[in-house]
Amino acid sequence: MKRATQAKRTTIYDLAELAGTSASAVSAVLNGNWRKRRISSQLAERITRLAEEQGYALNMQASVLRRERSKIIGMIVPKYDNRYFGSIVEQFETLARKRGLFPIVTCTRRDPELEIEAARAMLSYQVDCLIATGATDPDRIGDLCGAAGVRTVNLDLPGSCAPSVISDNFGGALELTRRVLANCEKEFGERFPLLFIGGRGTDHNTSERIRGFRAAHAEANVEVDETLILPCGYAPEKAESAMQQLAEGGPALPRGMFVNSTISLEGVMRWVRRSGHYAKGVPHLGCFDWDPFVAMLGDHIEMVRQDVPGMLHAVFEIIDSGTAEPKVVHIPPIVEKIG
Amino acid sequence: MKRATQAKRTTIYDLAELAGTSASAVSAVLNGNWRKRRISSQLAERITRLAEEQGYALNMQASVLRRERSKIIGMIVPKYDNRYFGSIVEQFETLARKRGLFPIVTCTRRDPELEIEAARAMLSYQVDCLIATGATDPDRIGDLCGAAGVRTVNLDLPGSCAPSVISDNFGGALELTRRVLANCEKEFGERFPLLFIGGRGTDHNTSERIRGFRAAHAEANVEVDETLILPCGYAPEKAESAMQQLAEGGPALPRGMFVNSTISLEGVMRWVRRSGHYAKGVPHLGCFDWDPFVAMLGDHIEMVRQDVPGMLHAVFEIIDSGTAEPKVVHIPPIVEKIG
DNA sequence: TTGAAAGCGCTAACAG
DNA sequence: CTGTTAGCGCTTTCAA
What we know:
2 copies of one chain form a homodimer. Chain A is an alpha/beta fold. Chain A has 3 domains: 11-68, 434 Repressor (Amino-terminal Domain); 69-162, Rossmann fold; 169-306, Rossmann fold (3-Layer(aba) Sandwich), CATH 3.40.50.2300. In chain A, 46% of the residues lie in helices and 17% in strands. In chain A, the strands form 3 sheets. A 6-stranded parallel sheet of chain A has the order 2-1-3-4-5-13, with helices on both faces. In chain A, strands 8-6-10-11-12-14 form a 6-stranded mixed sheet, with helices on both faces. In chain A, strands 7-9 form a two-stranded antiparallel sheet. In chain A, α5 (83-98) links the parallel β1 (72-77) and β2 (102-107). In chain A, α1 (12-19) packs across α3. Residues 1-5 of chain A have low confidence and may be disordered. The structure holds a DNA duplex.
């Protein structure tokens, strides 16, 4: 099975020599542009066969260097540890390939430095277009790309210098909060303010979700408890320690909450189980984001599932149409009740 | 914020002209090789500043084309829909970057065609090395890479023409089965054969896990029920319908099972809930793979967590050392009891 | 100390 | 119908 590493890879020149023709003919044939170059199908045949035999593989670096457009499309994404980003990446790759583009994806672990580092790297690789997903500073990336003449689309978190595709965070949060409020009233016979936990207070999504959260409270005539608004970050540990502090601070813990992302939920649930504070009854939960196992955790959880296919179709529609105005497209998420 | 797309990107020639020097000097400075070229720090300074001002970005295609190593490292991965592969990719990117390599990852959705298509694409992009993760046909990829003189490492699923890093599937399955068997005996006061469900019967991991499963039964003096060995594939739907068929076929469903991957577990759990067959008591489960929310599903579940950091360190050790012999490195997974 | 020049593999005029 | 040629932007001898 093992083969000595060849000193050199087969090039179109090697093929040309073997076929007794020129490199440009080989290039044309292998690119499928031989019809318009009116190369004899005989020659084309021969070249194709030789390429096959020799295990010829195009050198993309050389090809891209020469061409106008690279047909490489990049995406940066914060994490791979949840279904939301996972399916975004999968969809992205699929749709990119369907268009004959080569997708390159990189994960920046919510690190602002790494984020722009990654964007720079992608520009170096001559991406034709860059999707910035959940970026902490989309405009920084937008500027970088703008300067290089590369198109950008923001996904999940909006920016102001390129088109953005995001969920309808306000609407989703409004509906989710309504449901949790209703579930609480049903079980406890009274209305009370919920806890909001998780996410960065500074990001657009979180603030829109808090707005929806407030609106639902207002609708229900419940006054929001400001000490219960805790956008402590996304990491599980952050949510865990925020819960801990809350427990230490006051006497009664809220019996209903809005958890901003499955990742934060991981921390919340961990704390709920470890601390034993909810031993006599689990709280009613609403989670902004979907996960199949969370859906099985019990009937006290409602989830919002962001419409990933819808979002990515919108992204590629923007790319295909060539729009560059910084408009924001809102995609309604799906609020599901899990049984 | 918006900027007109520049007609042309700044090159080292532009910089050279602006600095009143040559392209080679610029190149040397920007690569940090100016010490050994003994370029005056004055000139170096000037060039660096200009590059900054002009927003110069290296053209990697040109650079890679000229160099003999690309410093690009590729990985193909089956799916992004579970924690195992998600963390593999994250670790991979981190370790690659730490070595000054540019990671490119692509997801092949367990599609054998796409798998080799992706491998070919990566070779075209001149990867120095390719990691084939959970590939359906690692040797096919190995051959492709071998022919191109590119190193490969198999991860998760072993191949025979390149080094492989995999979990100790036998050991993990043995211990996991032991525990489920013991849990069942504790609760039901008797020993009985478990169900094995999920995974492809043809892949190495699944067959090793079945071997471990059998060994644990033998140890416990329980005869394996051959009709309960169901490697039905990884997709949730597959597991779901396998459960359905099992229920239709026989009278009593097993009260204990070994589920091969969280993905299969998703289908199993869905069926368990929907069918109502386990209404009077959930079965004891063992899951080969870890997920934080599964861990919260109850005390009737045991999980095996594969040692992703350990596996990736082994992968990069192989890469760093330059080994190419097709040995298999086994990394012990962690069997955790969740409370 | 620095610059000139060759060439990586490929594409796309242009000239037969 | 086919070949020759001129670069794409960069790295790297080799000369000065």
